[in-house]
Every structure is written in C-alpha cells, then in structure tokens.
Model the fold of this input.
Amino acid sequence: MLTASPAVGTPVRCALSTVHKNADFCAHIDPGQHIYAFRVISVVGDRIELGVRVQFTSTVSTPSIQTSSLQDLYNIPERLYWFEVGETLEIDVPGSGQMTVTGELMDHMPSLISANNELDPKQGELRVVSPVLIRDQRVVFDFEGSGGTVTEKDKGFAIYTPGEGRWLLSLSPLKGAVQGRNWLSRISFEMNGKPYAFLMAAPVARNETIWVLHEPEYRPSRESPGARDDESFAGPEFLGHLLVKVPPKI
Done:
C-alpha cells in the first residue's frame, strides 16, 4: 500500500499487488492537479522496483488535462525507482515540488472503493471494483484488485486486455454501445447473440442501465506511441467523443 503525498494537492493511497499482474498497476487522475501512475516491475527481497509516471497539470502548458484519461499517462516518461518499506521515496515533480511516497506491506489486497467508506454509490457515480467478465458462462478475464470511481459526466471506465481489446462502461449512451442491466454488483447484457455479465466486488451505480462498448481492435499503441499492447490496464477514461447527444425534453 503506497501513500503518495504531493507538495500541492491531496495525498492518495494506492494498492499494488506484487503477486497478481492484473493488480500491479495503480493510476490517479486529479484534473487541475496531478496525473500519475505506479506499477510494480520487479521484487527482490524486501525491495520493490517501481515504475512511476507523474505530471503536475495545473499549468498553462497543459490546459487539455481537464479531460485527461489513462492514455495521457503513456505520454509521460516513466521513471524507475527502488523502494523499500520503512523508507521514504522522494520524487521531483516539475511545477509542483517534491512528492513523497511511503508504503507498507500487507497480507491481503485492500479494498479501496472511493474516498468514503459507503457501499451504496452516490447519484451519478460509477464504481468498478475487481471486474470479472463472463461470456457464455466462461471467464474472459479477471481484474482482481483493480478498479476505480468515476463521477464526471464525460467519463466512463475502460478495461483493456491483450486479445480482447478494450471494454468501456458508461452511465450515458455511447455510439455503438449496447444497454446492460445493472443490478447491485452485476451488469448483464447481450452482444453478438451471446450472453455476457460483468461481475464486480461492490455495487456499481444507482442507474438501472449501464452502457457497454466493446472495441476488439483497439490497441493502446495506436493512440499513444509509448503505450504497450501486451499490458492490461483498467481505469477512468474520457468518453466525450463517444457520447450520444440526447435531445432535451420539450
């Protein structure tokens, strides 16, 4: 469990697994403040090699960061650090100052759903916690320990895994998406004549309908030259260009 404390902004906790590859990555996007990510590269004894991408976004030079997404992370150079529990890692963040990172080893993967501890999602909130995709009663992928919360109207949640492409979940209609029935911690839908279900470790949203879009041909490297197509990721994603404009009610 890492705690990143920037010189400007609010400290953020980040849970990383040193065992499961689907949970060795953690990203945080705070519009107008920071965008950063941590991932476990290797473990040698009590030392953990971390890959860190961080950028201070509250500058004139990065106004578009207000609509940032996970893909923006790959445009930030990754720096490598060796970290050991009990020590403090100091990372220079241009424009912001020094970020300090501390951590502790845990005997389980903690549940970090949101800033509050309420299990019931708030109005307009989309929560994704440890998503598992089922197709024809078979597991397509299991992102154990991964997740995040989306509250912005122009954002959704993206899940990418090699061989399957990208899946997008949204509270608003998306171009080419299908409607999924949301009930507690399960999103059920049909696509290409086959039954699907996203199973989560916590309630997803108050909405009865969740829109699901599958992009099987999606490759991260096509959008960001620094991205890798052989690595899975999951996190909030800007979807403004995919939103369907609904005419106002008269």
Q: What stands out?
A: Residues 59-67, 113-117 have pLDDT under 50 and may be disordered.
